[in-house]
Amino acid sequence: MRKDGNTENIGSSGSQEKTFSNNSSQSSQSSQSSQSSQSCQSSQSSQFSQSSQFSQFSQSSQFSDRIIRPRGDYQTLLSYQKSDVIYQITWRFCEKYLTKGDRTIDQMVQAARSGKQNIIEGSKAAPTSKEMEIKLTNVARASLEELLEDYRDFLRVRDLAVWDKQGSEARYVRKLGMTAPLTFEIFRKFVETRSAEVVANIAICLIHQATYLLDHQLDGLEKVFIQNGGLRERMTRVRIQTRNQQENKS
């Protein structure tokens, strides 16, 4: 399977194919490759911090005596931002490269939408049901995994390359994917001008990042639930505390 190692020429299938990064020179390309691993680790740490903000918010002692706790802003979650970009890429990919009437179109678009929407629903359910938040976040994770396999299938059945995770192309996309806040505009020119092979691989890289964040988000939610319990337990705990305070006053 072909794995092109030139970041500057991602997607080149001929002399007329535009380069992936028109502004990168050979020297800057070498520098980016050598720094990629360190920047990736640093950004992943930052992303984990942002993806866990709901959990950290729930653990705050400021809200320990509240039954209905404030929810975080899902739009600031990198897992949501990546899922939104993945949905927009997928919609355009299916519209451009798949034949109308192909059932795969509905399956891929719905899987991408499910990844995004279930993060929203999970955050909305969080104040009253930690169980539902965990369940919906896991549905988002599973939907993106399904979409990942659809993109891989698209490439494999057409004998197109799946980029090596450690290749310069994948590292370049991961670096773009670490932008915060992340929007589709960062990838628009690539989606609109590159080949199906390149666009599919860009989506694959972003899906890997999104599922990484969701895995850690789920770990954080699990720890919060184990430590603090759910709504019913909070209700019982607050009611007992209030009753004890009333008895002490009397």
Describe the structure.
The chain is mostly helical and 250 residues long. The protein has one domain. Helix content is 70%, strand content 0%. It has helices at residues 26-51, 53-59, 78-97, 103-125, 130-157, 168-177, 185-193, 196-228, 231-249. Helix 2 packs parallel to helix 8 and helix 3 (78-97) packs antiparallel against helix 4 (103-125). It is elongated and about 80 Å long. The model is unreliable at 1-9, 12-19 and 21-64 (pLDDT under 50).
Decide which structural class fits the backbone.
mainly alpha
Question: Secondary-structure element sequence?
Answer: HHHHHHHHH
Number of domains: 1
How many E-type strands? 0
Strand content: under 5%
Shape: elongated
Count of helix runs: 9
Major sheet size, sense and barrel closure:
none
Low-confidence stretches: 1-9, 12-19, 21-64
- What Rg, in angstroms, do the CA atoms define? 22 Å
Which range best describes the helical content: under 10%, 10-25%, 25-40%, 40-55%, 55-70% or over 70%?
Answer: over 70%
Q: Kindly state the mean pLDDT as a whole number?
A: 77
CA(first)-CA(last) distance: 79 Å
Topology:
Layout: H1 26-51, H2 53-59, H3 78-97, H4 103-125, H5 130-157, H6 168-177, H7 185-193, H8 196-228, H9 231-249
Helix pairs in contact: 1-6, 1-8, 2-8, 3-4, 3-8, 4-5, 5-8, 6-8
Short description:
The protein is mostly helical and 250 residues long.
